[in-house]
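Anyone have tokens for Thylakoid lumen protein? Sequence:
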Amino acid sequence: MNNPVVHAFFVGRAVAEAVNEQVENALTNAFSEIGKFDAEQRESLRQFTIKVTERSDAQMETVMRGRTTTTIVPQGSQPVDLQATIDELRAEVARFRSELQRYRSRSV
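Reply: yep, here.
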């Protein structure tokens, strides 16, 4: 192989193969990082969606616990006197019972 042109050809070919391998490795690594980033973003979005759903459910639960017969009162917006509420409910039941007794006595 004393011919310098042949030697230059093989050197050029080896350089091209080495550059090709470097580009291939760089592209593989870049696509791998893009794939990891995409997966992380999807997981982050999924976690965010779960947190939002949980927060929404918790707020709905809180509102539903504070619900009365006519309005929705968020829990904590008004002081709740449990004994007064129980007394009001008992009085309401007593009123309904007396009205029911009057109705029944008129029907007979």
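Residues 4-65 form the longest helix (62 residues).
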